[in-house]
Amino acid sequence: MIDVRFESPRLRWDVMSFTIGLHLAALLGLFPAFFSWSAVGVAVLLHWVTIGLGISLGFHRLATHRSLKVPRWLEYCLIFCGTLAAQGAVKGWVGYHRMHHVYSDRLKDPHNSTQGFWWSHISWLMHEVPMKPELARYTKDIANDRFYGFCHQYYVWLQVGLAIVLYGLGGWSFVVWGVFVRLFVGFHATCCVNSVCHTFGYRSHETEDRSMNCWWVALLTFGEGWHNNHHAAQASARFGWRWWEVDCVWLTIQVLAALGLATHIKTTNSLKLNQSG
Predict the structure, then answer these.
(1) Which of 21, 65, 128, 169 would suit a FRET pair with 235, their CA atoms being 20 to 30 Å apart?
(2) How far is CA 42 from CA 23, 37, 102, in A?
(3) Residue numbers of the domain that contains 124
(4) Is residue 265 part of a domain?
(5) What is the number of structural domains in the chain?
(6) Under 8 Å between Cβ of 210 and 195
(7) What letters, b where the CB count within 10 A reaches 16 and e where it falls short, cover 8-39?
(8) pTM (2 decimals)?
(9) What is the pLDDT of residues 212-254, one digit of tens each?
(10) Collapsed DSSP state (helix, strand, coil) of residue 8
(11) CB 177 within 8 A of CB 40
(12) Strands annotated E in the chain
């Protein structure tokens, strides 16, 4: 069945305004008055904390796919870190990603890559996608968790709180790089998994979608760019399967396991590959 484009989806003006504002604010990083190497260091550190630990490990491998188990206190720390990535409320992130796997590259995929590169990269976020009413049934397991609910409701204010802390530590350069530039890079790095990794790269597995592995997206996202591997065994905690497919988050999981903080870790050895043909 050939997919058709959504009919005149309504624009989400609040998301559009926030995104445009973020991109404009990130440009401040080009001005010497807002630059310092310590501020760049803060941005790099927070990129790892929010995208690596927060989004890739917390939101994705843990909350979305339940690829491993960690103590509740550690799970909440990881979800908090992911919330500071400001990529939307946690329940929406988890729900839309689960829907992506159910309907990958088909009509009900929230960021269906057959609708075009721009749609899958960013435009879907700017529109009221038709399947939003279905979101609740994909997040029943976290719907009543009070900490998830707190992060879901106050993720914008938590970012404001972080900005205040950074201003106190290093002034406006820390805010510009630690918030605006860092969010800009993290946002597009994650969006590249939806767009680039369904368009460019190589395929190790003949999955029933357009997923591909892309090395430079993997570097930006600490392993998320091995997307074809992930679609072949979505519940696996390990995304980089070959020795040269560097997956920093998988290495982190191994460290947590050695410390006794990660258990019930799912890998391809215990999972059926989702391949066609």
Answers:
(1) 128
(2) 19, 9, 37
(3) 30-204
(4) no
(5) 1
(6) no
(7) eeeeeeeeeeebeebeebbebbeeeebebeeb
(8) 0.92
(9) 999 999 999 999 999 999 999 999 999 999 999 999 999 999 9
(10) coil
(11) yes
(12) none
